[in-house]
Amino acid sequence: MQNQKPVKLIAYGCRDDEMPTLKAFQNREDLELKIVQAHLSTDNVYLAEGFDGVSIEGLSQSDAAIFKALAGYGIHYFSTRTAGYNRLDLAAAKKYQIHCANVHYSPYSVAEYTVMLMLTCLRKFIHIIARSAVMDYSLAGMQGRELHNMTVGIVGMGHIGKTVAKCLSGFGCRLISYTPHPTAETDALAKAVSKETLLKEADIITLHTPLTQDNYHMIDKDVIAQMKDGVVIINTARGGLINTWDLIDAVESGKVSAVGIDSFEHEENVIQIDHESSLIHNRSLLALKAYPNVVVSPHAAFYTDQSSKDMVTVSLNGLMAWLRGENNPNEIAY
């Protein structure tokens, strides 16, 4: 080990909360790490020249132009510090022979947030707080519902979906799930049912699946029509899973009684930006935010101290494993 050259990695889009973990990696003798706070783009990709691998934050540019440039620098290992990888142009990565990986992180970050959104929707918590802020302590219109009376349908039983089921187990609600590959473990946590059964029986539907070409707009007007009247929809996965305008129609008609979303369509130019004095060019988002029974948050479900540490650690360790001829357990198959 002492005779090995240090691995050279560059990390783009580094947030302040990631710095303690990143700097701990910088102190390692077997690694040379360059930290760049700006997101990767065609304007700064040149900084990667001379490095062996690249780690990015999810909002970085990761298209054909980027992969072509990286391949030109002799870089063939690329990691996103996110679980979702729908923004990566995997066809271009394959063309330029660049291995890509995502990360896993504490599933409790998103799972606990998901339960919070459910309770916020059921108990109309945002309205209660807004009223109390202006000294309105009336109860009219604030009656909520109890989670233990609900049937919760979990779509996707990966790490996060399973953890959502574990978190909900103490509330006494009925749990059902739809997943392409159910196992004895997932069935024990939330009874495996068909997609049609879940849509028909669930009072709350919560999404925990990656976004792919096959499931884009998996929730549209036709699917919503199969749901129970007054259903609550929670999305802490990816915005593209839901056809937003169809969801808006369902909220206006009363078919959907409440919505809690942490990821929304076309969020790339909205999240992680202060828009207090600027325009937001996302009409469907602005329409959703106008409804009193819709809770929107800025893709923050993942954002905990534990997950920030996990994302950096898994991303950099995976890149180092590749460069030492080992397997990266988070490699994305393409």
TrEMBL record:
PROSITE patterns the UniProt entry points to: D_2_HYDROXYACID_DH_1 (PS00065), D_2_HYDROXYACID_DH_2 (PS00670), D_2_HYDROXYACID_DH_3 (PS00671)
Pfam family for this entry, one: 2-Hacid_dh_C
Hydrolase is among the record's keywords: no
Domain D-isomer specific 2-hydroxyacid dehydrogenase catalytic: 17-332
Keywords: NAD, Oxidoreductase
Alphabetized GO MF terms: D-lactate dehydrogenase (NAD+) activity; NAD binding
Domain of life: Bacteria
Domain D-isomer specific 2-hydroxyacid dehydrogenase NAD-binding, residue spans: 115-301
PANTHER family for this protein: 2-HYDROXYACID DEHYDROGENASE HOMOLOG 1-RELATED (PTHR43026)
Family the entry assigns: Belongs to the D-isomer specific 2-hydroxyacid dehydrogenase family.
Protein name: Lactate dehydrogenase
Natural source organism: Candidatus Pseudoramibacter fermentans
